[in-house]
Design a protein that fits this description.
The chain is mostly helical. The protein has 7 helices and no strands.
């Protein structure tokens, strides 16, 4: 038998009162596993919480890997186009123009990836429905928040190669041709 009590005051005094009441009814009935309701709820939801923690950890790892990937592709692209990028300042382009040119490439790469990822995630979102509580699997607020976060990370990952490209010496780029 299980008894659930909502004490009006102190939980310790309520536990003692319940034990005394049960002993008063029948002294042979053992009273055990007396604990707060939060502990019972915590024990009943540990699987869901573990699933969400693992999902959050893997999502964080995926975000880090995506940003490393965008950085790697942009760094490689900038290294391959050093001559082309170096000619722009020689022809009068400002550092800001060179940075914006490289960041546009990073933004295009990131938006393409986010768009294709969202296109794949929408049909598969229903598989996560059992793990979610009071959030629909294809919630537009969640999708837009994740997409904007990924785009921000992509632009941030493209910033280092963009600044490196802006510091390219035009004379070295022209001499290497």
């Amino acid at each position: 038998m299980t008894i659930t009590v909502r004490p009006a005051a102190d939980a310790a005094s309520a536990i003692a009162a319940v034990r005394d009441t049960v002993r008063g009814i029948d002294a042979g009935i053992p009273v055990f596993e007396v604990r707060p309701m939060s502990s019972w709820v915590s024990d009943s939801t540990w699987r869901q919480r573990l699933g969400m923690v693992l999902l959050a950890v893997f999502s964080g790892v995926a975000l880090v890997l995506a940003s490393i990937g965008v950085y790697g592709v942009m760094a490689y692209s900038v290294a391959q186009q050093t001559q082309e990028i170096g000619i722009h300042p020689a022809l009068g382009a400002t550092r800001a123009l060179v940075v914006s040119m490289v960041l546009r490439r990073a933004l295009l790469l990131t938006v393409t990836g986010v768009t294709s990822g969202a296109g794949a995630a929408l049909p598969l979102a229903g598989l996560l429905g059992s793990l979610l509580f009071e959030v629909p699997p294809s919630d537009p607020a969640v999708f837009s928040t994740v997409a904007s976060s990924l785009i921000f990370v992509g632009v941030l990952a493209g910033m280092v190669p963009a600044l490196r490209a802006a510091n390219t010496d035009p004379l070295l780029a022209i001499r290497s041709q």
